[in-house]
Amino acid sequence: MELILWRHAEAEDGMPDLERELTGKGRKQADKMATFLRARLPEHTRILVSPAKRTQQTALALTKHYITDEALGTSASPQTVLDAVGWPDGDGAVLVVGHQPTLGQIAAMLLSDSSAGYSIKKGAVWWLVRKANEGDFQTNLKLAIAPDSL
Predict the structure, then answer these.
(1) Rounded to whole angstroms, how far apart are CA atoms 125 and 95?
(2) Rounded to an integer, what distance in angstroms lies between the CA atom of residue 26 and that of residue 9?
(3) 22-45 b/e with 16+ CB inside 10 Å = b?
(4) CB 138 within 8 A of CB 131
């Protein structure tokens, strides 16, 4: 299984939190990353997106064909997100457009068995792959890239 974690691009400050929109810089970040992903995502990648406006706008830079999942909201726990994507037993690739600190906590849990969490920059993607190796399963980091590196 492949799990691609995409943190929403830069958003405006303000309240209510769920209504915060991308800034001009955030739109450019989302467009750059969408172009990068479009050329690399496996066919039939499932795309699950938080209901927050900023994540919806980030995902729309890539495609209009995604599923809004309330379980991926701003207060989601790492385990709730992993359950929603079917980790670790799911097939294929799943792209999650979500929030910090949850995405960084997921990466830390899967890569280092830590609850501390990693810092994932706005608009960045972390691509994780779960594979069998000598009868055991391992999670590997395939890619971590921020939009300013594209």
Answers:
(1) 9
(2) 5
(3) bbeebbbbbbbbbebbeeebeeeb
(4) yes
pLDDT of residue 134: 76
- The class of domain 8-141 in CATH terms is alpha beta
Find the length of the chain: 150
Calpha distance 74→17 (Å, rounded): 9
Tens of pLDDT along 89-129? Answer: 888 999 999 999 999 999 999 999 888 899 999 999 999 99
pTM for this model (two decimals): 0.96
For residue 14, count CB atoms less than 10 angstroms from its CB and return exposed for 0-12, middle for 13-18, buried for 19 or more.
exposed
Return the residue matching tokens 């405006």.
Answer: 12
Task: Round to the nearest angstrom and report the end-to-end CA distance of the chain.
Answer: 25
Q: Are strands 93-98 and 2-7 parallel, antiparallel or unpaired?
A: parallel
Measured between alpha carbons, how far is 120 from 102 in angstroms, rounded to an integer?
A: 10
β-strands 67-68, 93-98: how paired? unpaired
What three-state secondary structure class fits 30? helix
pLDDT digits (tens, 9 = 90+) for 7-42: 999 999 999 999 999 999 999 999 999 999 999 999
